[in-house]
Amino acid sequence: MLVLGIDPGTRNLGWGLVRGEGNLLIHVAHGVLRVKESLPLSTRLVQLEAGLVQLLEGHRPRVGSVESLFFHKDAQAASKLGHARGVVLLVLERAGIELAG
């Protein structure tokens, strides 16, 4: 089974793919979707969505896991992370990928 893990962000979105084979987890690929901080938030979110769709089409994972938001002193930064996480959840759901945890 191929599992995609995602660490959402509005400038850098980290991802990693592992394949489960019995009791083993085998690294398949990892990377970062980078978007320019100077772009408007809405444009960055669209670019993240496009990058995620391309990633899913290239690897076809069965399960996805998205890092939860944690308490953040900067409410504006926490809100932006929430937007990025929402885009990730939307893309995974549209692709029919089961969410774990």
Q: Bin the strand percentage.
A: 25-35%
CATH superfamily of the domain at 33-101: Ribonuclease H-like superfamily/Ribonuclease H
Give the fraction of residues assigned to helices: 25-40%
Structural class: alpha/beta
* CATH fold title of the domain at 33-101: Nucleotidyltransferase, domain 5
Work out the helix count: 2
Low-confidence segments, given as residue ranges, are none
Q: So, CATH architecture of the domain at 33-101?
A: 2-Layer Sandwich
Radius of gyration: 14 Å
- CA distance, first residue to last residue: 16 Å
In this structure, how is the largest beta sheet organized?
5 strands, mixed
Shape: globular
Mean pLDDT: 94
Number of strands: 5
Order of helices and strands: EEEHEHE
Query: What is the top-level CATH class of the domain at 33-101?
Result: Alpha Beta
Strand line-up in the sheet with most strands:
3-2-1-4-5
